[in-house]
Each structure stands twice: as structure tokens, then as C-alpha cells.
Amino acid sequence: MDQMYEIIKKLPKADLHRHLDGSLRTQTIYEVARERNYPLPAGSVDELGRYVQVSEDCRSLADFLKAFNTFYPLLMNPDVMERAAYEVSEDAYNDNVKYCELRFAPVLQAKEGFSMEDILAGVLKGLKKAHEEFNIINPLILCCYRSESPESSLETVKLAIKYRDKGIVAVDLAGDEEHYPASAHKEAFNLARKNGIQITVHAGEAGSVNNIREAVEVLKTDRIGHGIHILDDNKLYQDFIQRQIPLEMCLTSNIQTTVVKSYEEHPFSKCFRDGLKVTINTDDPGVSNITLSHELYLLHKYYRFSLDEIKRVILNNVEASFTTKKRKALLKQEFEKEFESRK
After folding, report:
1. Does domain 3-77+103-111+142-341 have CATH number 3.30.70.20?
2. Active site includes 217?
């Protein structure tokens, strides 16, 4: 790291694609496991890090997912998810992230006697506490899951509608896009749209560009998670540029899961310079062992982005956020004022 990293770390930032379950502290996993007599493959926090985090040179989707398998059963509890929501918000705050949209799939955590709503209540409690202590704006996105039933997606959307005044701003469709089409969940996303709940969809990450098209045409998504394969269809690519449909891109995650072979081959730089509304996000910062500052620094390291270009990316995140026009304007004003003071 060099001086540019230190400058970036001090800048205000916004993260739009950060999975709660992929953002846990290793210390927390260790402590919760010991409290609940949950077996771990390591006897210390340092040793556990080898199992729940992947190194920067990870080049295997299997290794990346294996990290989740180590601790995921611990998350099927409202108290654990409350602690996670609070700590993830605190970690974002410590990286000078002023606005952080967190997301999780309640259908995956609703096990062992706890309902989706029980888990959600814990998460919202943790987010509220963090907001009050750190003044971080930390709205929530609820994920539906492609491999789960359409009924579970309807239930997830209904929870989003019920708790929209408690901080939920959008719903997402995540999961295996290669084997489970988005169209199966059309009814749930129609319900979200009719009720003013915003939509984002994981598409074109491991799957083809056709999944991006399906997300736009069938689910009427407002944003696309990842969207790596957007360049495979020039007509769709130009449409995204013209309509300014945002992409939530995640550099390190895409390399570690082998969606992209190298940073040099990642499409972010081309998309940005062609005028597409691209944003930089962390995805799973706990598992990837990164921060948003680190991801923004990579733009300078690999694509020679200037500080002004990095600031433009940060403002893209603000403009693409799932918040009100008034709050966007206030955030943009606040960010630009801080940018100016740090010249």
C-alpha cells in the first residue's frame, strides 16, 4: 500500500453490495462457536482465520465457499445475527463508509425453530443500535434465493413490505444463476415493484449475459449485482449505458471465485470509461479479508485511476444507492465537501 491508499481510507464512502453473512469477524465466529459448543477446525482465532477467510490469491470457487461452510450454522440464530449486523456496521464505519447497504437471505437463516421474521428482527435490532452509536446509514436488502421455492421469495418480499419503515429498502435475487432461472420468482418481484420496493438481482456473475437480460426484462430490476458478462452483448451493453442502469461490481470477490481470471481482465475499467454507471463494493469483506478502501485502491493499482476518478466512482455509489432523492442529494453534498477539504 502507498500514500494513495491512506488518502482513499480517509475519504467518505458508500457500499451497495455487502453480504452480512460474508462480513463476520473471525473473532466473533470463534467466540460464538465457543459459547454454543459448536465444533471448529481450529483452536485459536489466528488459526481459525485460515478456515473462514480466503487469501488474496484464492483462485477456486470451492475454496471460497468452503469458508462459509465452516461457520454458517452459527448464523441460524437471531442473537448472533443481531451481533453480526452491529459489528459489520461498525467495521464499515471504521473504514469511513458513511452509507452501507447490507443484505442477507432470511430464508437461509430460518432454521432450528426460528422463523424468517425472528431472524430479521435480530438483524434490524443490530442495525438500529449501530446507526444510533455511529451515525452510519445502514439500510437493509432482503435476498430471495434462486434455489429456494418461489413461495419463500413471496414470504421474503412480504417481510420487506412489512418492515419497509424499519430500514428495508430493496429485495435481491441471489444464488445459483446457472441452474435456477430468475423467472421462477417473477411473482414475488412483481409484488415488490407494485409496493415500491426497489430491486437488485445477482446476474451475469457466474452465469451468462442472458441472465442479465432476464433480470431486466422479467424482474424489471433497478440494479445488477456483478454483471461481469455485460460485455458479451453489445446491444445490451449500450442500453445499460444509455439507461444508466447501475452495476454493483466487486473486484476481489470476482477474482477469488474465478469469475474473472485477473484484475487486469476485469471489465470495470472499460465499463467506467465507456460511461456505464459502475460501482465498487466489497461483497463478502470478512471472507475476502478486505475493506472498501482496499477495493477502491485497486482501481489505482491496476487501472491507474486518478484520485478524481476514484471520487467519481464513490459518487456513482451514492447516486445508485437505494435511498431517497433527498438523502442522495445530502450525501453527495457531504461527500463533495469532504473531498474538497482533503485536497
Report:
1. no
2. no
pLDDT of 152 strictly over 70: yes
* Share above pLDDT 70 across residues of the chain, in percent, rounded to a whole number: 99
Coil, helix or strand at residue 101? strand
Question: Do 13 and 299 touch, CB atoms closer than 8 A?
Answer: no
Helix, strand counts (H, E) of the chain: 17, 8
| Cα Rg, the chain, nearest whole Å | 19
The phi and psi torsions of 306 (rounded to 5 degrees) equal -75, 170
pLDDT in tens, 190-241: 999 999 999 999 999 999 999 999 999 999 999 999 999 999 999 999 999 9
DSSP per-residue string spanning 229-253? GGGG-HHHHHHHHHHT--EEE-HHH
Which of 176, 83, 181 lies closest to 129, judged by CA? 83
Residue 190 and residue 155 in contact, taking contact as beta carbons nearer than 8 Å: no
Residues near 67 by beta carbon (within 8 Å), at least 6 away in sequence: 51, 52, 53, 54, 287
16 with 281: CB under 8 angstroms? yes
Q: What is the pLDDT of residues 236-264, one digit of tens each?
A: 999 999 999 999 999 999 999 999 999 99
Residue 125: C-alpha distances to residues 79, 109, 121, 138 (Å)? 9, 16, 6, 12
Q: Are 322 and 169 in contact (CB under 8 A)?
A: yes
Q: Which of 82, 87, 155, 205 is catalytic?
A: 205
Judge whether 293 and 13 are in contact, CB under 8 Å: yes
Neighbour tally for 115: CB within 10 Å: 15
The DSSP result for 28-58, as a single string, is HHHHHHHHTT---S-SSHHHHHHHHS--TT-
The torsion angle over the Cα atoms of residues 125, 126, 127 and 133, rounded to 10 degrees, is 110
Has residue 60 got a pLDDT over 90?
no
| Sheet strands (E) in 68-167 | 97-104, 140-145
Provide the pLDDT for residue 62.
76
pTM above 0.85, yes or no: yes
Per-domain residue ranges for the chain? 3-77+103-111+142-341
